[in-house]
Every structure is written in C-alpha cells, then in structure tokens.
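Structure request: SANT/Myb domain, Hexamita inflata.
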Amino acid sequence: MYQNHRWTEAENKEFSKLLKRYQKDFTLIAEKMDKSYSQVRSHYYNIQKKERDLKTSLNLAEFKKNYDIDQSIQRQSDQPIYQFIVFERVQ
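Returned structure:
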C-alpha cells in the first residue's frame, strides 16, 4: 500500500523543509503533509539507509582504488573462514 507510493520532487523538498523545522516529529510532519505517520517515518528511514549505503559504497570504492585485495577462503569443518590479505598498491 503505502510502500509503493512514489514521493514527488515537491514532496521531497517539503519533507526536507519540515524535517529541519520539526526535527523527527513525524506525527506533526505527517499532519502538515497530509500523509500517514508510517509513510513519513518510513520515508525518513529509507533516505537514511540510502545515504548510509552510498557512503559505504564510496568508502569501499576509495579503499579499492588504494589497495589490492586478495580474498582467500579456507574451509575448516564446513565453516568458511575468510582471510583478507591487503597489499598497499605501489604507485
């Protein structure tokens, strides 16, 4: 139901403005935007997750640029043990 609702650019701008004004008072924001509490709250946490994922992928990309990564797996009693051997790349 609500999860499939796509937020428009105008709604996102209004949400950002209201979030700055009312912090995390999702009830008040939902009231001002004529949306349900759960819609507003889940939208906020989806944005947070996207920002975290983006930051993680950027950090990983930066790390991969500077280091060669050799991943080897050793099996011991059917449990995989991951060893990461990191070599600094010579410029």
